[in-house]
Write a structure and sequence with these properties.
The protein is mainly alpha-helical and 160 residues long. It contains seven helices and two strands. Strands 1-2 form a two-stranded antiparallel ribbon. The longest helix has 28 residues.
Length: 160
Amino acid sequence: MIETISRRLALSIKTAYPKADIEIIEFELGRKINHYSIIVGTMIIGFLSGHFFSSIIGMILFAFARKLTGGIHFNLTVCTFVSVGLFSIIPVIHMSTSLVVILSILTSIFFMITSINKDKAWLISVVSIANISMVSSTVVLALLAQMILLLPLRGGDFYE
């Protein structure tokens, strides 16, 4: 869906500017549509569900961890729907204090052990350890979601 929209827009731009590289325009338009769709979709569903700020916190934290660690990438349309769904569901899930503490410690260890870029992995570990005092299920679930996307699974392309 997003791929089709970005392709059509790129073709329109190509007719106006014949020297433009259609693949680059299509890629960049697709990325922008994807990002804005995720942000707007998460904000709308977060607002409607009464978990606006928690949805935004989950989205920002996931994006922060994603930027530092990489992970599996899906096509743009699947990425948009999975991301909006994930950021909308995370704030609704509540966990006990002890479970949040245990998962925070485990995610911190996981990121330190498995991260390709050890120089940046400590930042995620600091957030995860800080979550022990904040006891936020949103924080730990956003980091767990990113952790799952670092596992070598089938179905997407892995990028750093």
